[in-house]
Write a structure and sequence with these properties.
Blueprint lengths: L3 H17 L6 H15 L4 E7 L4 H4 L6 E6 L9 E2 L4 H6 L4 E5 L18 E7 L3 E7 L4 H8 L3 H54 L3 E5 L5 E4 L2 H6 L3 H5 L3 H4 L5 H12 L5 E9 L5 E12 L5 E10 L1 H51 L4 H31 L8 E4 H18 L3 E6 L6 E4 L1 H17 L5 E11 L3 E10 L21 H7 L5 H11 L5 E5 L3 E11 L25 E5 L3 H13 L3 E5 L2 H10 L4 E5 L7 H9 L3 H5 L2 E5 L4 H9 L4 E4 L4 H11 L2 H11 L1
Length: 716
């Protein structure tokens, strides 16, 4: 007999479930309502609804993940967010409305797990093709659970239809919304495109540079209005032309090469310079940047160019290059002039000074001594003036290079003072030297330029001092193991320098007054040269002076100290300059000037040196090939073949000649000449006019060791 009360209760539950189905067009809300009613009327401990993911794009984010949980009766942690479509459970539900099993069943792992409150029974109910309803019972067996669910299958079928309707509605809504979204994006993109086009036209139409768009073959697609201002064409007129119609023929190959490179994938080219024909038929210089526009397949679709007129800049560059070339030509002409004048002036000066020196050494009569001394002094003074002018020209042209070598500073200082003793004696003034005992014996410096600075200061001091004296003072300011800082002072009791003239006294061609120039002579270059030379040696000249009481010029200079081995000398080279110290040396002299040959010959004969003389480079090469010499003195400027070419040929002859020391004889003061001489193998140079001490020193320096040693052994 049926239990009518139970049937009535189940009927009410069914009605309630059906009532809660389809209450909302939102699928999730619909599921939540149905699960809420189901849990109230059935002894279910947990329930969840899983729907195919592609039907829930708004919830699943469009992921393709089979089945996804859409609703739960109570929040539970999901360890597997999806149930795979290939799970064995779908085979079980394929032909059944529901299926039940214990949670301990191995099949449970394939359907996605919630962390359920203990072990129990799971009932899976198929919701048509849209998904599944998963129910969990703690106390019931699978059979009991199925019996509890069976009466409500009609309600489940009704809910499945309701869920299908909700999902269909939502899908339609999504499609409408997506279409509206696409339409909005399309309208936005069109608006943005129109805005970009508007901005592009504003920029291109107002730009000073020409903006063009080209087809891959170079045909114009767009030309900005700036073309009219720059080249005189209207944009429509230019559009009818080919790019090659307006490019200078000489630039065709260059631009074609660029086009090929861009078609080959180069990202772009900037600052291309080419000549373009304007509307008047004249070519103007344009600078262009090219940027390729590629399709999605990477193939060149178009390319954009940005061009500007650089004709004025090119004309300025051309003018600058021409000015540079003219300046270089002028500088070369100046250098050639100085080299020529140096040679032409020094050659006769060599004769005057050399012959005077020889005559003074050959016991002249007493009535001749004064005349010869005056002649020698005047010649030396004239040479000093010439040297000042040439040196200043070299300094201004940047042609002076410093040569830092170890030197004996005390010896140098004593030599400078001794040089000026005759002049001081003639003026009856006292000349003295004060050297700090702590000054090192050897320092590293440019001996020639340091001597020039001190000679200029000492010469000026003696020149402008009529009574009292001149004193050279050198003190140690600071000294370490590797460096010494010295303080040089040249003090005199001469005429002094007015305060208002002290600032300008170091300018070129400047002396304290015109009367000073008339009374004492000079070029006014000595102090200017001194200042420049000290600046090149990283020092600075300073002055303190009182008019009528005297002056003191002083400067500080840093010297590096050489290692001990760098200061060692060969015993033979330190010998005294006796007349027979170089006896046995054999020298070839190549000199085209007869007077110079005579002067050199007199000195060599005095020192008992055997010498052969030739007048040009051709004869020098022949002599060097026919005989063996210990040293060759080679004039740089000779007829038929100059000294540099002769040196090169001699060095190429045989092993002996490759090793023979060749010393340049030159009246040129130009650094380039000496550098060129060194480049062909000349080992040193002797400046004209000849200084006998310098000539003897160079011969002594490069004479083969066996020559002089043998001579000294024979004598001892």
């Amino acid at each position: 007999m049926r239990d009518d009360s139970l049937i009535s209760e189940q009927h009410e539950i069914l009605i309630s479930l059906l009532t809660h189905s389809g209450q909302s067009l939102d699928s999730k809300v619909n599921c939540d309502h149905f699960l809420g009613a189901l849990v109230r009327y059935l002894p279910i401990d947990h329930a969840s609804i899983w729907v195919q993911s592609h039907r829930l794009a708004d919830i699943c984010g469009g992921r393709v993940c089979d089945f996804h949980v859409i609703s739960q009766s109570a929040p539970q942690e999901i360890t597997e967010g999806c149930i795979p479509e290939n799970s064995p459970v779908w085979e079980v539900l394929k032909d059944r409305k529901f299926y039940s099993f214990r949670t301990s069943d191995i099949a449970f792992q394939y359907i996605g797990q919630e962390k359920l409150p203990g072990e129990g029974t799971v009932v899976l109910c198929r919701l048509n093709t849209y998904g599944i309803l998963k129910l969990f019972f703690v106390t019931q067996t699978p059979e009991e659970a199925e019996a509890s669910v069976s009466p409500y299958l009609p309600a489940l079928e009704q809910f499945a239809k309701s869920l299908a309707g909700s999902i269909a509605y939502e899908k339609l809504g999504w499609e409408i919304e997506e279409r509206q979204f696409v339409e909005r994006r399309l309208m936005q993109a069109q608006a943005e495109s129109q805005e970009r086009e508007r901005l592009f036209r504003i920029i291109s139409e107002n730009a000073k540079d020409v903006i063009c768009l080209h087809q891959p073959n170079g045909d114009f697609v767009y030309i900005s209005p700036a073309i009219t201002r720059l080249l005189g064409y209207k944009p429509q007129e230019m559009m009818m032309k080919k790019i090659w119609d307006v490019v200078h023929p000489e630039d065709h190959g260059f631009l074609q090469n660029l086009k090929t490179r861009i078609e080959g994938g180069q990202s772009g080219v900037n600052d291309i310079q080419s000549r373009i024909k304007n509307a008047k038929g004249e070519y103007v210089w344009m600078e262009t940047s090219i940027k390729p526009i590629l399709g999605e397949d990477g193939i060149l679709q178009q390319f954009q160019t940005l061009s500007r007129d650089i004709t004025f800049r090119k004309e300025a560059e051309t003018a600058l290059i021409e000015a540079k070339n003219k300046a270089e030509e002028a500088s070369k002409a100046k250098a050639d002039f100085l080299s020529t004048m140096s040679h032409e002036i020094r050659t006769p000066m060599n004769a005057v000074i050399g012959l005077t020196h020889i005559l003074l050494q050959e016991s002249p009569r007493e009535d001749q001594v004064e005349a010869l001394s005056t002649l020698h002094f005047s010649a030396e003074n004239l040479l000093s003036l010439i040297n000042d002018i040439l040196d200043f020209s070299k300094i201004e042209a940047g042609k002076i290079n410093m040569e830092y070598r170890p030197l004996q500073l005390k010896t140098l200082l004593r030599g400078i003072v001794q040089t000026f003793e005759p002049k001081a004696s003639d003026k009856n003034i006292l000349l003295s030297l004060s050297v700090d005992h702590k000054i090192p014996e050897w320092v590293i410096s440019d001996q020639v330029r340091l001597s020039q600075v001190l000679n200029n200061l000492m010469g000026n001091a003696i020149k402008f001092t009529s009574k009292g004296g001149v004193k050279l003072i050198v003190d140690v300011e600071n000294i370490t193991e590797h460096q010494a800082r010295l303080h040089f002072r040249v003090r005199d009791t001469g005429i002094g320098i007015p305060r208002d003239k002290q600032r300008n006294i170091f300018d070129r061609f400047t002396q304290a007054s015109t009367s000073t120039t008339r009374k004492y002579g000079g070029t006014g270059l000595g102090l200017a040269i001194t200042k420049r030379l000290l600046s090149m040696m990283e020092s600075e000249i300073q002055l303190s002076s009182v008019l009528g009481e005297g002056s003191e010029f002083h400067f500080y200079m840093d010297f590096k100290l050489p290692k001990a081995e760098a200061t060692s000398t060969n015993g033979r080279k330190k010998g005294d300059h006796t007349s027979d110290f170089l006896q046995g040396l054999k020298v070839l002299v190549a000199e085209d000037n007869r007077v110079n040959r005579m002067i050199v010959g007199r000195f060599l004969k005095k020192w008992k040196i055997r010498a052969d003389f030739v007048e040009n480079g051709v004869e020098a090469v022949e002599k060097a090939q026919a005989d063996m010499y210990d040293v060759i003195l080679m004039d740089l400027h000779m007829p038929e073949m100059d000294g540099m070419e002769a040196t090169r040929l001699i060095k190429e002859q045989d092993v002996h000649n490759r090793e023979i020391p060749i010393i340049a004889l030159t009246a040129s003061t130009m650094t380039e000449d000496r550098t060129a001489a060194a480049s062909v193998g000349m080992i040193d140079y002797i400046a004209k006019p000849f200084d006998p001490t310098d000539l003897f020193s160079k011969l002594n320096k490069y004479a083969p060791e066996n020559i002089t040693l043998a001579t000294r052994l024979q004598k001892g």
